Amino acid sequence: MSQFTKRKHVFKEVHEEYVLPDERNRIAKVLAANLGNNLHRVQLDGGEVFLASMPKKFRNNIYIKKDDFVLITPIAEGDKVKGEIATILLKPQIRYIAEQNLWLVSWWID
User: Where would I find the S1-like domain in this sequence (predicted)?
Assistant: First the structure.
């Protein structure tokens, strides 16, 4: 698969798929983006702050910045890095999750 085709599929996945959080995924807010080695500082709604890694499929294809929201899959064996980014949540996806009553969007200001 060429780099362009891969980028097209990743872009389509992020922009068109509406993923709902389940028992293994949690929503987190990005506090600091790209701290090196594709690590991002994130905060859960309970206030817990830790590092999350960016999977290889998103690297150099999708960029996140401070105050973005992501879906995190926890990593049990991590000390500092306690999660991996499962998907990046955009505004329409945040609205969809809020409409499903799965997330009270208290952090997000339109």
Answer: 5-85
CA atoms within 13 A on the CB side of 33: 13
CB 102 within 8 A of CB 62: no
Total domains present in the chain: 1
**Tens-digit pLDDT profile for the chain (110 aa)?**
776 676 666 666 666 778 888 888 999 999 998 888 889 999 988 889 999 999 887 777 778 889 999 999 999 887 889 999 999 898 888 888 888 888 776 655 44
Find the domain containing 12 and state its range: 3-99
Q: Is 106 a domain residue?
A: no
CATH code, domain with 86? 2.40.50.140
What is the number of other CB atoms lying within 10 angstroms of the CB of residue 96? 16
Is residue 41 within 8 A of residue 31, CB to CB? The reply is yes
